[in-house]
Amino acid sequence: MTTENTIPNLTLNNGVVLPALGYGVFQTPPHETAKVVATALETGYRHIDTAASYFNEAGVGEGLRASGVGREDVFVETKVWVSDFGYEETLHAYVKAVAKLGLDYLDLLILHQPLATMFDRTIGAYRALEQLYADGKVRAIGVSNFQLEDFDNLADATEIVPAVNQIELHPYAQQKPLQQRHAELGILTQAWSPIGGITFYPGFMSGETDDTQRSTLEDPVIGEIGSGHGKTPAQVMLRWHVQQGRSAIPKSVNPGRIAENFDIFDFSLTDDELDRIDALDTGASAWMASAEMDERFVSFEIPEA
Questions:
Q1: Which helix (H) or strand (E) holds 276?
Q2: 123-155, pLDDT tens digit by residue?
Q3: Which CATH number does the domain housing residue 29 bear?
Q4: Catalytic residue numbers?
Q5: What is the DSSP pairing of strand 108-111 with strand 23-24?
């Protein structure tokens, strides 16, 4: 199974190409990361997404080397955590990331989320990304969890339009105004929680459970569409992302699920099916920046390599 015959590519606003379907390692224990990354690459994935705050960048690099897949054939993406925001701090965050990954360059480096109440540090961090891009140390730069107003504030103080904004995006949280803004600015929409994991792990953001929370995996519309194609709800949702031109980053440590999530390129959703999934949007998103979040997260330090 090869990416050339299966995964469609997406072209970023600077001409860099990435596979539309990636493999994510959020919440993957560091001691398991190398094994599951190697499994994902053997399955056919060619885009790996990690982050400094996941504490498993070293495992990603180890898995990449163990897989035998050439470095130039894998698109590696990681994120700068907010405690490393600021110009000099973010330049050093890059040094830490490539040392842990064991790489000479990054394909995509993004800011993990905006510091809403300390946006000057966010600006400094993004200017550092611009410098890293100018120096050829990263092939593309971007952001994550940015909202509409964040792009205005960023544009006022920086030069390069982000290539990517990675956001919570699944059938129940489609963030349509934000997707429209991405389209206007030439920013690729990249989905975290693309199969709605945040809906079937209650309390993921707040630490509290909610018995009324609905799971995308149990949605009757998605289930009916999947039955018609002989596919699972997860496969239907990933196909929905890819057909609509988004980058999707599913995660799993189960080899069977890793393979299942990859097996979405032998069927297509009809326009009516896409519309039915689009209609499931609740207009809500679990992730929202706040002063409390800024204060809590900025003290969460990333260790040296």
A1: helix 271-278
A2: 999 999 999 999 999 999 999 999 999 999 999
A3: 3.20.20.100
A4: 54
A5: unpaired
